[in-house]
Amino acid sequence: MKTRYTSPIVLLVVLATTVAHSQTRIDRSSPPRQQFVRGLDGSVQRSIEAAHESARLPVGPGNENWDAVFASDGLGLGAWTVSAIVVDGSKIYVGGTFSEIDGVPANNVAVYDRNSQTWSPIGKGTNGFVSSIVVSGNDVFVGGYFQSAGDIGADNVARWDGERWNAVGSGMPSQSYVNSLAMYKDRLYVGGHFTLGANAYDIARLDGSTWKSLGASSLNGVWALAVHDDELLVGGTQIEVGDSVRGPALAWNGQRWRSLAGGLDHWNSIAQFASGPSGELYATGYFEEDSLNAIAQWDGTTWKSLGTGIRRRRFGIQPSMTALAVASNGDLYAGGHFMDSAGAV
């Protein structure tokens, strides 16, 4: 399997032997954050966060014809970002921090119809940034940092039912935020930085209209949720359940937890997961073990290095990996803030 990497210094995505970079423009002074998502057809799509007025934020399939639909020319504001992309059939949902998309007014969340090739707002959107989106049937759930969606109060989590925005449960505390959403066994799970009463820290499940604790907590928030091999994976920093199950990654089967520490101590962090077409599991984050270099593969018991990984930045600073995806042919794509890949498998 080939392993391919991207660097935000030049923002290149390689899907074959050619380099796809047309119409992509990000100012170097503000290193962007990237996120990849695999479409239903196996294609890899990308979002980019960039804190600069001159940034153009493309969204489209990773080929030689990027569509620069997020044009910030004349923005006159600080950062416009795209933090979440979900492909659902012919529709592409995006969330982030923006007030228009391709000339269409939209507050932080929008949908693209690939049949009509048009963008539409999702109601009146939210009054704050959207960091995660998950689609379940006709419902679109968004999470982030906001206090309202449309005309209703909704703290950091909201649901669009196709016609209107709805609050989700009692929402999150006002001084909290949501990093990730996931649907697992028809239940909505939320990861972020919040407290929902006794023993409900940073990860919770929606039961009816009530948020339920799963008994887990973390030191610095939950960053990643993903479903893999019929388990819900949770990534972050110092996640623990009591005194016996702990690590930067835990797996939940609906009834009990198990650790996926696999040689990583409590001070490592996992920021993203990605599953391969043959059951592979990859993770990226901050790893103190030099051999891992920001990216690793799970072999069932231990996190293993992928070649020589991603090279450290200057002065020995760990690379910042914030994006990971696997295409249908097994190619692995990684994005973040680093100098370059130190090697490939």
Please supply descriptive tags for the structure shown above:
345 residues, mainly beta, 33 strands, 0% helix, disordered N terminus
How would you portray this structure in words?
The structure is a single chain. This protein is mainly beta and 345 residues long. The termini are close together. The model is unreliable at 1-34 and 36-79 (pLDDT under 50). Strand 12 (109-113) and strand 13 form a beta hairpin. It has no helices and 33 strands.
How would you concisely characterize the structure shown here?
The protein has 345 residues and is mostly beta strands. It contains no helices and 33 strands.
Q: Taking all residues together, what is the mean pLDDT?
A: 74
Beta fraction of the residues? over 45%
Helix content: under 10%
Tell me the overall shape.
globular
Oligomer: single chain
Number of strands: 33
Largest sheet: 6 strands, antiparallel
Strand order of the largest sheet: 4-5-8-9-12-13
Distance between the termini: 7 Å
Helix/strand structural class: mainly beta
Low-confidence stretches: 1-34, 36-79
Rg, nearest Å: 19 Å
Number of alpha- plus pi-helical segments:
0
List the helices and strands and how they pair.
Layout lengths: L2 E3 L7 E2 L4 E2 L12 E6 L5 E7 L5 E2 L12 E2 L8 E9 L2 E7 L2 E2 L2 E2 L3 E5 L4 E4 L7 E8 L2 E7 L2 E2 L2 E2 L3 E4 L4 E3 L9 E8 L2 E9 L5 E7 L2 E4 L8 E7 L2 E11 L3 E8 L4 E3 L9 E7 L5 E6 L8 E4 L4 E3 L14 E7 L5 E6 L8
Parallel strand pairs: 1-33
Antiparallel strand pairs: 2-3, 4-5, 5-8, 6-7, 8-9, 9-12, 10-11, 12-13, 14-15, 15-18, 16-17, 18-19, 20-21, 21-22, 22-23, 24-25, 25-26, 26-27, 28-29, 29-30, 30-31, 32-33
